[in-house]
Amino acid sequence: MPETDDMQLLARFARENSEPAFAALVERYLNLVYSTALRSVGSSHAAQEITQAVFIILARKAGALRGKTILPGWLYQTTRLTAANFLRGEIRRQQREQEAYMQSLLNEPTPETWGRIAPMLDDALEKLGACDRHAIVLRYFENKSLGEVGAALGASEDAAKMRVNRALEKLRKIFARRGVTLSATLIAAAVSANSVHAAPAGLSLSVIAAAKGTAAAGSTLTLAHGALKLMAWTKIKTAAVIGAATLLVAGTTTVVVHRHFHPHLSTTDLAWADDPHNWQADSRVIDRLPPVFILRTTRFPNERASIQFGNAAVNYHFNKALEKDVDMTGLIADAYGWNSVRTVYPADLPASHFDLLFTLPEDWRPRLKTELKERFGLVAKVEKRAMDVLYLKMVNPHAPGLRPPGGGYGWESSTSSTGEYETTIQHHKLGDLTGWFEGQTGKPVLNQTGLNGEYDIHLKWKVPPGQSENEVFQAAVRDQLGLEFVPGRESVDLLVVKKTP
What we know:
With 501 residues, the protein is α+β, with helices and mostly antiparallel strands. The chain folds into three domains: 232 residues, no CATH class; 133 residues, no CATH class; 114 residues, no CATH class. Helices cover 47% and strands 21% of the residues. The chain is built from 18 helices and 14 strands. It has a six-stranded mixed beta sheet with strand order 2-1-3-7-5-4. It has a four-stranded mixed beta sheet with strand order 6-14-8-12. A hairpin with a 2-residue loop joins strand 4 and strand 5. Helix 2 packs across helix 3, helix 8 runs antiparallel to helix 9 and helix 8 packs across helix 10. The longest helix is centred in the middle third of the chain and has 26 residues.
């Protein structure tokens, strides 16, 4: 039988004070909370106290958590906040214990990769957006399948796979900036194998008793109280930033600028939003702008530009995005994370092009979905439909352009002055390239090569006058990579966009 849903158990506890329901949640997530606390403070004793405090917090907030809360991600973040609160009072001693603990990790016969990333893992996760962090926690801390991750995030399995891969790539870049160069695959394997350990025997009973308020030490209750205050203050600050946001929609120009972040921008002067210099696809430029959500008819025709990035500031992760001269299909792709090949559009899709600027302290995609629904009446859901597809098959395993991975990791594409296209991809699975293949061929691509490892790929092609770019590309893939696209028909997941009644 399937497990009872997290929020059903929590609701039962809040409604009936059901000890079995709460015990089931403790049993389910005790190791996750304890392991996260242990990495944060480096002391088993302190980690146990933090674990008790976290579940006390869960018990007190059981009736307030929304039904769509992803409980593993919430518990992870609450553990981090509680651990931070703990460290405030004993920072010097705890730093020494943390250093000693990490050194002991390096001296133990654990995998080398884990020893290198463990000291910085949680700080790196803090720099991810909430959805990316949820994806990593669910996939590698809780070892959920991609289908289960997608279900928790309200997305398809393919969308969950893309989310996880993007989050891993962000972690890889963060580690690389700190001098640790590893592939995303190695990072995933190390986190999955080492991030969660068994909590000490008997801790489960102590946690349940503490949450009931019958056996919690004074220091634990103080810790929980301090963490609750920290969580409330964080929420208040987030609301203040959102409330100080600008919303420019169509002809509406209501502006309130958060002075603390941007004291040089006036709260009444709107000229900056019309200045082309503030619409550069440059993170340094966007970082200095006030918190805004602008979606308007483009003022930059034929100046297509796009950038998406995150920036940690004042304990928040700012998800930021800029699009210039993007059509409605591009906005839908941004909001839902699906490529146009696997998207079905209504016949009366708006033909205009738009400019988008988002600098609010939240994930911008849900806000964009809401805007598309409210302004244009567009909503989308995933449906299975039969359609023409291409099966990717192996025809020559010794092709020169498909090689075992070397030391690098990346993706570079260029076009020469003579019109020759060149793409170099390092350390990627063929299954992760189907989106690229689909963009080139215009049809859904299903990987049937049987190859599960990572590869380096080098591909060149040039389209002679009068020839089909699609045919030239497929010929280059066959000759240089030893891969062939075979036509077929299959029932596949498609994002179906519809107009609301």
